[in-house]
C-alpha cells in the first residue's frame, strides 16, 4: 500500500523585471521568483480532482500583477506579500514558500534609462507563511572573494593517500553562498499589506554583506573552516536581528605552478586556478538562544 507523502507545487523561476519611471531617471528591479504552495492537496494526487489547485500559471500571473500593483522594494517584502496572499486567498492552501533572487543592475553612466548588468553577487530570500506566522531567510550567492596571503593549511590528518603538501602561505578563494535567518519577522498577517514592523531588509543585507567581506579579509586563516566560522560569527555580532547563518564555501583551489623547468622562480606569483574538483566547506553558526527555526529552511 502506498500513501501520499509531503508535497507542494508552484511556478519555478518566473523572471520579472519591474521598471519604475521617475521622469528620466528610471529604476529597475530584476527578479527570479519561485512559488510553492502546500495544503489540502491530497485529492489532486489521489483522484485527479483539481478543485483545490490554483494553477501555477495563475501564480506566475500574480507575481507580475503584484509587481505592477505594489511595486518591488526589498525582495523580502515582495516575497512575504506573495506568500501571505496565497495562504489568505486560497482556502485549501495552508503554507506558501516564496523564493526570490535579485539580479543587480548598475546605471550606465549618467543616462537615466540605460543600465549595465552588474558583476555583483545575487541577493536571495525565502519567505514562508502558514497563516499563523511568517519566516524569512535572506542571503546571497556567488560573492567571489580571494586573499593573496594570510592563509595556511597544515597540521592536517594524514593517511596513505595523502599527498597534499603543508603550506604556510596560500591563496584563499571562494564564492560565498550564505543565508541568514531573521529572528524578528512581523506576525502581521493582513492580506496584501506590508507588515507595519518588519526588519529593514536592505540595511540588514548591507551590514551582513560587509561583515562577511571584512571577516574574510581580516581573519588570518588556518583553514577555510575557521574562516567560515569567523564569517558567521561576524554577521551575528554586527546584525542583532539575525539569529542563524548558514554558509557554503567552495574552496577555489589556486595551485602554485612549477616554473623550475623553465628556469624561473615562483615565489607565490603564478597560480593555476582549478575549477574542479573543489573542496566544499559548509557550516551553520547560530546564537545560543536562537528561536526555533520552524519551516524557515525548508
Ligand atoms: O581550508 C582547507 N580545509 C580543508 O579541509 C582542506 N582540505 C584540503 O585538501 N585543502 C583544504 N583547505
UniProtKB/TrEMBL annotation:
Gene3D superfamilies: Urate Oxidase. Keywords: Oxidoreductase, Purine metabolism. O2 binds at residues 56, 251. Pfam families: Uricase. GO terms for molecular function: urate oxidase activity. Signal peptide: none annotated. It catalyses: urate + O2 + H2O = 5-hydroxyisourate + H2O2. It comes from the Bacteria. 5-hydroxyisourate binds at residues 56-57, 153, 170, 225, 251. Its EC number is 1.7.3.3. One of its GO terms (biological process) is purine nucleobase metabolic process. Pathway: Purine metabolism; urate degradation; (S)-allantoin from urate: step 1/3. Urate binds at residues 56-57, 153, 170, 225, 251. Belongs to the uricase family. Catalyzes the oxidation of uric acid to 5-hydroxyisourate, which is further processed to form (S)-allantoin. This is Uricase. It comes from Microbispora triticiradicis. The gene is pucL.
Amino acid at each position: 500500500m502506498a500513501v501520499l507523502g509531503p508535497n507542494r507545487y508552484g511556478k519555478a523561476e518566473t523572471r520579472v523585471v519591474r521598471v519604475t519611471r521617475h521622469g528620466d531617471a528610471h529604476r529597475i528591479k530584476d527578479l527570479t521568483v519561485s512559488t510553492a504552495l502546500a495544503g489540502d492537496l491530497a485529492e489532486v494526487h489521489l483522484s485527479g480532482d483539481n478543485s483545490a489547485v490554483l494553477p501555477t500559471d495563475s501564480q506566475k500571473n500574480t507575481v507580475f500583477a503584484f509587481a505592477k500593483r505594489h511595486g518591488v522594494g526589498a525582495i523580502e517584502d515582495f516575497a512575504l506579500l506573495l506568500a501571505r496572499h496565497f495562504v489568505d486567498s486560497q482556502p485549501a492552501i495552508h503554507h506558501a514558500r516564496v523564493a526570490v533572487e535579485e539580479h543587480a543592475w548598475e546605471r550606465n553612466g549618467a543616462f537615466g534609462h540605460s543600465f549595465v548588468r552588474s558583476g555583483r553577487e545575487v541577493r536571495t530570500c525565502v519567505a514562508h507563511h502558514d497563516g499563523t506566522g511568517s519566516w524569512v531567510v535572506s542571503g546571497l550567492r556567488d560573492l567571489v572573494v580571494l586573499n593573496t596571503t594570510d592563509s595556511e593549511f597544515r597540521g592536517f590528518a594524514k593517511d596513505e593517500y595523502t599527498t597534499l603538501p603543508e603550506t604556510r602561505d596560500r591563496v584563499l578563494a571562494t564564492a560565498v553562498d550564505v543565508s541568514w535567518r531573521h529572528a524578528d519577522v512581523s506576525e502581521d498577517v493582513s492580506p496584501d499589506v506590508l507588515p507595519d514592523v518588519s526588519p529593514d531588509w536592505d540595511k540588514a543585507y548591507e551590514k551582513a554583506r560587509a561583515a562577511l567581506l571584512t571577516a574574510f579579509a581580516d581573519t588570518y586563516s588556518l583553514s577555510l573552516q575557521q574562516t567560515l566560522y569567523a564569517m558567521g560569527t561576524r554577521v551575528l555580532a554586527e546584525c542583532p536581528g539575525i539569529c542563524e547563518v548558514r554558509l557554503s564555501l567552495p574552496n577555489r583551489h589556486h595551485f602554485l605552478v612549477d616554473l623550475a623547468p623553465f628556469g624561473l622562480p615562483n615565489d607565490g606569483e603564478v597560480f593555476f586556478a582549478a575549477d574542479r574538483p573543489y573542496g566544499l566547506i559548509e557550516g551553520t553558526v547560530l546564537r545560543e538562544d536562537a528561536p526555533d527555526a520552524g519551516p524557515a529552511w525548508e
